[in-house]
Amino acid sequence: MSFEHVAWRPLPYSMGVPIGSDWQDKPADDPVFGLYRTCGFFSEGEIELLSSVARQFRGTWLEIGAHTGWCTSVLVGHQIEVVAVEPMFSAGGWEQRFRDNVGAPEGLVSPWGVTSETYFKCRTLGQSFDGCLIDGDHEAPAPLNDAKGCFERLNERGVIILHDFRGGPVWDATKWLIDQGMNFRLYPSVHMIAVCWRGEFDPPPDIQEGDVDWAKHWGLPEWMR
To answer: For residue range 150-172, what is the model confidence (pLDDT) as tens digits?
Structure first.
């Protein structure tokens, strides 16, 4: 792995917890990359959770919102094949940054420089996944559509992880998965993570990040806690 242009520091929302973000080699006013200088990665605690889940669901994963490969590298480290969907791959230099960061052997990672909507239209339901990570567009109706697309392609034993469980659109997507009969556990953390699964699974323990009651901090309804 590379990630030579990642900086770790507390962001305004993280209550003192260090968060990583890429593109520190670009100026803040860069019209393409400047915005992403403060686009937070999974925190260290969230990465530990992802790794714990990945150890139980090996095989092939779909990652929606691959960014520059932070979570992809974790999955690849467990010898998981990853279909990485990220529309910004079409921006000059972005996909190369992703490949440099991940350093994955050829054939283990399949980058798709399209939106998840386009990906789902391009791929038939014949392709299935052991795990799905949803961390793309958080505005409605994208999270719900992503959840539906992942659910349709999930193996009989599989897991769907939703990052940034802090707003209504991601809540709606998670509630839809629960209504389909999937098990659910919320992991209070800096960004909040929802884990939905079916089949045999031993959920990892809660994430410990700082002294903040994250569920209360983000004002989640009681059913989600």
So the answer is: 999 999 999 999 999 988 999 99
